[in-house]
Amino acid sequence: IFGTALPMSGMVMSLEYLSSGMTSILITTGPALTVLMAHFFLDDERLTVRTILGIGLALSGAVLLALRGETGLADNSGSIFGYGLVLGGMLLGSAATIYARKFMKTYDSYDVASIRMFGAMFLMIPLSLFTVGFDLSAVTNVGYGALGYAAVVGTFGGMMLAFYNVKHFGATASSMTAYVVPVAANIGGILLLDEIFTSGMLIGTALIVAGIYTINRRQKETA
């Protein structure tokens, strides 16, 4: 519920207020949040001066974007309410990553991913039925294909790989994959959805990437 259903719902709902590129940029703050939380809850992943600097850079990028009111939409019709949905989801997701690292060292990644997916499903399907219902009349075959891909590859496959990384490489190393997302999302959003990439988004992205690079560099040196 807290590690899958709520974070994913928050990120999907944020797309009503932010572009896919902006949402993906904010998602890259996840590693910084994970590193910060890992210091307090995991004995083998402590903060250093370098990681503190990296966290500060990454979060300053997100703060800059929020202060500028960037949405990434061409008509600027969105709302910074989307920021709260994304960052709230990232906090819950980071907490779930820490929890997984702490307790799943002896468990199979496939089993854990399956249980989390089914747990999220049993919560979200009844909740959706009671709140908004299901109207599938407008869904095309392409839409069903996209849904199937998102469920099997993008969600379950990604989650299983994430748990594998958490188990074998740690919560911090696993979270570093998040900064690959905005590259694909921004390119796809601009080419396919008429989204924009502003100078403010570029500066915010640079700060976030610099922060994550600083954290990741510490990881390489330690290894």
Describe this structure in words.
There is one protein chain. This protein is mainly α and 223 residues long. Helices cover 75% and strands 0% of the residues. It is built from 10 helices and no strands. It has helices at residues 5-14, 20-27, 30-41, 49-68, 81-103, 109-131, 141-169, 171-175, 181-193, 199-222. Helix 2 packs antiparallel against helix 9 (181-193). The two termini are 34 Å apart.
How many strands appear in the DSSP assignment?
Answer: 0
Q: Give the overall shape.
A: globular
Strand residues, percent: under 5%
Query: Could you tell me the mean pLDDT?
Result: 75
Order of helices and strands: HHHHHHHHHH
Query: Structural class given helices, strands, pairing?
Result: mainly alpha
How would you characterize the largest beta sheet?
A: none
Enumerate the spans where pLDDT stays under 50 for 5 or more consecutive residues: none
Question: Topology, pairings included?
Answer:
Elements: H1 5-14, H2 20-27, H3 30-41, H4 49-68, H5 81-103, H6 109-131, H7 141-169, H8 171-175, H9 181-193, H10 199-222
Helix pairs in contact: 1-5, 2-9, 3-4, 3-5, 4-10, 6-7
